[in-house]
Amino acid sequence: MGFKTQSEDQYAVSEINVTPLVDVMLVLVIILLVTAPLLTQSVNVALPKTAATQPDTEKQPMQLGLDAEGRITLNKQTVADLTELESSLTNALLLDPELSIHVYADQTVNYGKVAEVMATVQHAGIAKLAFVTQEE
């Protein structure tokens, strides 16, 4: 017959049976594939269609420049001093209450001068102030 006795099989089996491991992994993959679409919680909404719009180019921020010599420019027009700058900004703020300023300051300008200009912009009543820098 085909029976083996223990004396004939003297060595231990050193192989791993991977069939149960493959079965478990396939079940996990099937569970993942079934539950993944259920995890996305989306709401189907019919969005309204509109015509394409153009961006508002009239509301561009004002450009406030400080060059290396300390000269102040507002929208590329030279400003004599800080009082003239404040009056110009106050008049512009009356026309546009949502006015914003982009500051272009040279890197060699003294920080004290930049702080004075920032204080002047704040005294004029403008709250939106941004510094423009260059990426390296």
Structural account:
With 136 residues, the protein is α/β, with parallel strands linked by helices. The chain has a five-stranded mixed beta sheet with strand order 3-2-1-4-5. The model has no long low-confidence stretch (mean pLDDT 84). The chain is built from three helices and five strands; from the N terminus they run αβββαβαβ.
**What's the mean pLDDT score?**
84
* Total of DSSP H or I helical runs spanning 4+ residues: 3
Order of the strands making up the biggest sheet: 3-2-1-4-5
Instruction: Give the SSE order as H and E letters.
Output: HEEEHEHE
Distance between the termini: 85 Å
Spans of at least 5 consecutive residues whose pLDDT stays below 50 are none
Number of β-strand runs? 5
Shape: elongated
Instruction: Tell me the major beta sheet.
Output: 5 strands, mixed
Class from secondary-structure proportions: alpha/beta
Helical percent range? 25-40%
Radius of gyration, CA atoms, in whole angstroms = 36 Å
Report the portion of residues in β strands.
15-25%
In short:
This protein has 136 residues and is α/β, with parallel strands linked by helices.
